[in-house]
Request: fold
Amino acid sequence: MGNEIVIKANSVKKKYDDNFALDGIDLEVISGQILGFIGPNGAGKSTFLQSVLGLINTEGNLEVLGLDPRKDRHKLLKEVCYITDVAVLPKWMTVNQVLQYVDGVHPSFNLEKCLTILSRTNIKRSSKVRVLSRGMMVQLHLSIVMAIDAKLLVLDEPTLGLDLVYRKEFYSQLIEDYYDGDKTILISTHQVEEIEGVLSDAVFMNQGRVVLHDSIESINKKFLELRPNQDFIEKAKSLRPIHQRLELGREVLLFEDTEIDKLSNLGEVRPPFIADLFMAIMDKTKKEIEA
Reply:
């Protein structure tokens, strides 16, 4: 894994009318990271990714691959690949026309490699995009992406509208056939449970702010969930969990920076799922704001 700074954001802001879509984002992304942007609708995830791509103007300082995304967008796009929805392709084109178009506009696209990947599928190059199933569109889009030698891949809700099988296939192929340890991948998605196994780092966002940014390895050390045995519920609560919830009628307590030895004798202990941790952090943040 490299140590090149791919994205450096300092006090990045974006305001629409009287609301901040981005409210002072400070973030550093290193090459080789697979970074998940997690947050509710309106959290600012897509806005930040659009600013990284130079699609919108922002206040503050933002560098992507050492470039200003707005001023140097033509240079930046030579090193970046962007997907919003794998099912969105020009339906009037044939598969071959799509490939020829990409080959003509993206200097890092390897047509020969793409054709090799496509040969493993049932997709015919003469077929119109409109007759492809959604699963085939996934395969076509992946074939294109994996044939682009980009330093940065930005995925904004890439599997929106696809069923579970194709969503899993998308991420599986992406990691196995595209990621090489040096490329950097940014993923924004609502299906948190499907990507946490591939993430190296996570960013929790809410109301245009970053409320947590850490590596998955660090998160798994820092946060622990305890499902206490019935006899030890009160003792567990005395250790001051940062959040608690009921799961199928059983208490689940979340601890931060608490030694596992203090918890292991009280019940079942494990790192939280990212989706559960996110909900807990959002709830904790909300209560702090209201207090």
Residues 102 and 225 are 47 Å apart (CA to CA). The domain at 5-207 is CATH 3.40.50.300 (Rossmann fold).
